[in-house]
Amino acid sequence: MSEASKFTEDILKSGREKAQSIIREAEADTQRASDEAKSAISREADDVVRGARADADAVKRRQVSEARHRTKLREQQEKDKIMQAILDQVKKRTSELVTDESKYIPLLIHLIESGIRELGGNSAMVHLNKVDLQRKASSLEQRVNKSVGTVKVEWSKDPIEAAGGAIISTLDGKIRIVNTLDQKFDALTPRLLIEARASLFGETSQ
């Protein structure tokens, strides 16, 4: 082999080795970049999955909370319906009581007497509804006068708006004792609701 040929062969060999070295480095760089890209994508995927799972958990918690709230609201609405039905029944029985004179008249006399005692003084004005004003003309006035003794009782001719019972006032009307059935029912309602809720639902007042 001539010197020129040998020189050419050495150059080509060196070039091939250099090329192979460059190729290997390029392949290594490519593999590194690929591995890094896969790792980055994997991290991104993991972050997305974690974020999606957190979002899903948040949605689930919110849905459960909303479902519980709706259930509690419906339960409370049903309880309120039951309590209103109880109040309506009590009010109905109160209205029926007024029509039974054997029970109502003694109660009416008691309400008038207690109002007069609470008012104090030597005189009192009794205010009744339209129906009870008609009853006054019978034995009601005599029975009240007898029970209050020396207190002078006058009867207002102007009927009041009430289911029953009476309003007792001073003659000038400045002081009034409200002993109507409506007032008694309103005063009784809070305690009735508390007792009914405790009895029916096991609820106690805070």
Question: What can you see in these coordinates?
Answer:
The protein has 206 residues and is α+β, with helices and mostly antiparallel strands. It folds into 2 domains: 1-99; 101-195, ATP synthase, E subunit, C-terminal (hypothetical protein PF0899 fold, 2-Layer Sandwich). Helix content is 76%, strand content 9%. It is built from 4 helices and 4 strands, in the order H-H-E-H-E-E-E-H. The protein has helices at 3-99, 101-119, 130-148, 181-201; strands spanning 123-127, 152-155, 165-169, 176-180. It has a 4-stranded mixed sheet with strand order 2-1-3-4. It is rod-shaped.
Could you write a compact summary of the structure shown?
With 206 residues, the protein is an alpha+beta fold. 76% of the residues lie in helices and 9% in strands.
Largest sheet entry = 4 strands, mixed
- Beta-strand residue percentage: 5-15%
Terminal CA distance reads 113 Å
> Per the principal axes of the C-alpha atoms, what is the gross shape?
rod-shaped
Mean pLDDT: 80
User: What is the helix tally?
Assistant: 4
pLDDT < 50 runs, ≥5 residues: none
- The strand count comes to 4
Strand order of the largest sheet: 2-1-3-4
**Helix content percent band:** over 70%
Count of the domains:
2
Summarize this structure as a short list of keywords or feature phrases.
206 residues; 4-stranded mixed beta sheet; 2 domains; alpha+beta; hypothetical protein PF0899 fold; rod-shaped; 76% helix; 9% strand
